[in-house]
Amino acid sequence: RHAGRCRVARHCSIVGDEGRRGWRRFILRAYQPVVKQLGFDPRAGAYQGEDPQRFQKRVQAVDRLTGAGRDAKVQTALIKATDRFFTGQRKALDPAWFSMAFDLYLSRFGLDGARALMDTALGSEDPDFRPAALAAIASSGQRPIARWLIEEFKDPRLRPSEQRGFIAQILSMRGTREYGYAWLRANIDTLLAGGGA
After folding, report:
1. Which has fewest Cβ within 10 Å: 50, 75, 125, 126?
2. Can you give the pLDDT at residue 122?
3. Residues 158, 149 contacting (CB under 8 angstroms)
4. What is the pLDDT of residues 62-97, one digit of tens each?
5. Reduced to 3 DSSP states, what percent helix, strand and coil does the chain have, rounded to the nearest 5?
6. What are the residues whose beta carbons fall under 8 Å from the beta carbon of 83, sequence distance 6 or more?
């Protein structure tokens, strides 16, 4: 996962509204020129063979602008690429952008989006797509998604190791942390006995 994992500030920031506005202005001033200089094309292989440092610089800048910066142009490019990706155009979205793109997808579609993304992920053995999709769902910071994930969702295609990772990711996000701890306290005996998530 990228360093800027907390992309949706309301889910994981500890600062107030004024602080978030100031931080957003700083992010935009710092990273919009970087993306303007380096360019941004979310298609698979668009930067194949590029110098790794240059590529990483772009990834970091896009990550910041997608999240805390809420840059409309960058977000729109990712949303359009994600839409194409989910209609079968797998080359529309490079794995480097998966976590950012799926975060945006879930922020738009909520629980319905999580259900659709989960079904697509569990039908895939792609070593990049599947874990990125599952991590995005568990780290959405949305309580309805967290509740569905650990209380209702059952599917034999889900591996035990994947299921065990959900609670840790739910606990890591501000929006779902309290719910996750309450669930953990209520189910600790079952978990220690080797059952549940």
Report:
1. 125
2. 96
3. no
4. 999 999 899 999 999 999 999 999 999 999 999 999
5. 70, 0, 30
6. none
